């Protein structure tokens, strides 16, 4: 059974009640159609009420849901003939980032993304989705390969951040991220990035310099986690809920500030409720963006990316005294 989030408790209990009545009707041969229909109507109303009024902290919890679909699950649903490629040709292979070549609606693409686990064993194997520098160098190797063969690049972002350990710093974590930012800015092929879970700090941005950036409805994208921000601002990580509200980290906040290009709606209750339906929405979004970007020339793609990031942010000119 998937983990229940606090704000979801009324919905979960009502679903369980409906399932219980259905089981009784089935085993006892009792007609309970009316009662079940009444409860299902109430369930739809309750879901609309709860999921349309989620606070930023609620969305953080959904983005972190242990059963939330991962990069490899989406690749399996939206692509065909995926071949995973490994290694950075310098140090080793980092399983916190996966990537390779595949077909998307018949078009060859390169697809790359952060990969976390769903069990403790898998999370340890994937380093909880926090890449070492060789992971980012692998991603860049695949991007340059895609540019060489004229393949569009799709990136899935889902990480708390780059791994901050001593070994990662010794192997050039900051340099690896910085080089990705620099090289992605000048790629001559379409680049689309989608935040599918957590998008944390430079570890996320290293796959985020794209022509089009989208976020799943309940994903987050920020320079630091709410707990980290609360620890710095108020010396108290327990104030993460207040930090999440102040940081403007939700898809709706970022769309309003024109940092992202669009929001991919999630199925009721979050992407983990229905992988196939969520993958279809994601595929439709990517398909539409690719159709638009495929019509641009190499120079137009680079200029489009440059203009996009130059326009992010606001400033006010003060009159001279």
Automatic annotation (TrEMBL):
Enzyme class: transferase
Segments forming a coiled coil: 11-49
Alphabetized InterPro entries for the sequence: Acetyl_CoA_COase_a_su, ClpP/crotonase-like_dom_sf, COA_CT_C
Assembly with partners or alone: Acetyl-CoA carboxylase is a heterohexamer composed of biotin carboxyl carrier protein (AccB), biotin carboxylase (AccC) and two subunits each of ACCase subunit alpha (AccA) and ACCase subunit beta (AccD).
GO biological process: fatty acid biosynthetic process; malonyl-CoA biosynthetic process
GO CC terms in record: acetyl-CoA carboxylase complex
Keywords, in A-Z order: ATP-binding, Coiled coil, Cytoplasm, Fatty acid biosynthesis, Fatty acid metabolism, Lipid biosynthesis, Lipid metabolism, Nucleotide-binding, Transferase
Pathway in which the depicted protein is active: Lipid metabolism; malonyl-CoA biosynthesis; malonyl-CoA from acetyl-CoA: step 1/1
Domain CoA carboxyltransferase C-terminal: 38-292
SUPFAM superfamilies attached to this UniProt entry: ClpP/crotonase (SSF52096)
Catalytic activity entry: N(6)-carboxybiotinyl-L-lysyl-[protein] + acetyl-CoA = N(6)-biotinyl-L-lysyl-[protein] + malonyl-CoA
UniProt xrefs under Pfam families: ACCA (PF03255)
Record's subcellular location: Cytoplasm
Gene3D superfamilies: 2-enoyl-CoA Hydratase, Chain A, domain 1 (3.90.226.10)
Name of the protein: Acetyl-coenzyme A carboxylase carboxyl transferase subunit alpha
Entry EC number(s): 2.1.3.15
PANTHER family: ACETYL-COENZYME A CARBOXYLASE CARBOXYL TRANSFERASE SUBUNIT ALPHA, ACETYL-COENZYME A CARBOXYLASE CARBOXYL TRANSFERASE SUBUNIT ALPHA, CHLOROPLASTIC
Family: Belongs to the AccA family.
Purpose: Component of the acetyl coenzyme A carboxylase (ACC) complex. First, biotin carboxylase catalyzes the carboxylation of biotin on its carrier protein (BCCP) and then the CO(2) group is transferred by the carboxyltransferase to acetyl-CoA to form malonyl-CoA.
